Amino acid sequence: MQYDPIKRSLGGVFNQTPFLRKTFYKLLDLLLLRTWHIDNELKAWMALNPNKTQVFDAGSGYGQYSYKLSGLNPKFNILAVDVKEEQVEDCNIFFAKVGKTNVKFEVGDLTQYNKPNAFDLALSVDVMEHILEDVEVFKNIYTSLKPGGMLLISTPSDQGGSDVHEGEEGSFIEEHVRDGYAITDIEAKLKLAGFTGMVSRYAYGKFGTIAWRMSMKWPIQLLGVSKLFFVLIPFYYAVTYPICYVLNYLDANGQNPTGTGLIVRAYKA
């Protein structure tokens, strides 16, 4: 199914006021399992790098991770880049309204965009499955990082990522150009771009996959059928979210021998 029209519909609802936008970000934090994994990784990185403040949000989308980062450390200077002009404009307006002066959004194509030796940390959350020229993106991010900088990636794996389980089965999200990465594949591409010291692990294991279907896939499918389901969604989550919370906690705080998602750290020497 096409995900972008649903995202635009959600944006239309939650962009009406800054309060609703903040509420939307909070809901994403609660519902999206990848946010739990990214939180863990960011806190670990910050503990080891308390004085590093230059951050690159590569493929910023709604801006929820830039918003999160700006709250984790007010000293962060965050540059967020996305290819969609309307989202960049919208994010700049919202962040100005809420006084987040340490965040700037720019329009940019990650296959071409770089700022040499500018950042301590780069974040790429659910971006690479949308970009065919992934090695070019990795090279540009590598160039943009300072020596010792880290790239943190969240992306689907080849173990059922994008909810693909058979060879001929299509991706749940039509906008994806690849269903998922094998660990050996993404690490090889990162190495080709210059990165070293890759650390990869699975997310969305047996608990997380169930949580994703309950909290994301099924509601999105309903919204894809009719916008009338917006009315029913709060009641749906009132019943299902306690279960999803427990499943997310187990996935984010346990070891997944396999999973439909990948969390990857890569470093610039």
As a whole number of angstroms, the C-alpha radius of gyration is 18 Å
- DSSP strand count: 7
What is the second-level CATH architecture? 3-Layer(aba) Sandwich
> CA-to-CA gap between the ends?
40 Å
> What global shape is seen?
globular
CATH class: Alpha Beta
Outline the biggest β-sheet: 7 strands, mixed
Flag low-confidence runs: 167-172
The whole-number mean of residue pLDDT values reads 90
Strand order of the largest sheet: 3-2-1-4-5-7-6
What structural class do helix, strand and pairing data support? alpha/beta
Helical content stands at: 40-55%
Question: What proportion of the residues form beta strands (DSSP E)?
Answer: 15-25%
CATH superfamily: Vaccinia Virus protein VP39
Number of domains: 1
How many helix segments?
A: 9
- Find the CATH topology: Rossmann fold
What order do the helices and strands follow?
HHHEHEHEEHEHEHHE
Q: Which features would summarize this protein structure in a list?
A:
9 helices; Rossmann fold; alpha/beta; 46% helix
